[in-house]
Amino acid sequence: SETIKKEEFRDLMKQMGVGDSFLQELIFNVFDENKDGTIDFQVKIANYRHLFCEYFLFFFRKISFKKKIF
């Protein structure tokens, strides 16, 4: 199956509008369960699509909220 490396994942996140490196790292670590620096793209992304969306929305709202306050 196809794997995606951390830098490729970061590029993908930037394309999706997630430019914050902390958020990128956090999301990547959710998917990199064995901590080898790669994600089994077909299996993990398909299995965790819903989880990914929830994390993305949660952290996006949190970051947006902080930017409005400060």
Number of helices: 4
Assign the structural class, choosing from mainly alpha, mainly beta, alpha/beta, alpha+beta, or little secondary structure. mainly alpha
Low-pLDDT stretches are: none
Helix amount, in percent? over 70%
End-to-end Cα distance = 44 Å
Average residue pLDDT: 76
* Number of E-state strands: 2
Strand order of the largest sheet: 1-2
Major beta-sheet overview: 2 strands, antiparallel
Name the overall outline: globular
Q: Tell me the strand percentage band.
A: 5-15%
Spell out the helices and strands N to C: EHHEHH
| Radius of gyration, in angstroms, nearest whole number | 13 Å
What this model shows, in words?
The protein is mostly helical and 70 residues long. The chain contains four helices and two strands, in the order E-H-H-E-H-H. The chain has a two-stranded antiparallel sheet with strand order 1-2. Helix 1 (6-15) packs across helix 2. The longest helix is centred in the last third of the chain and has 21 residues, at 49-69.
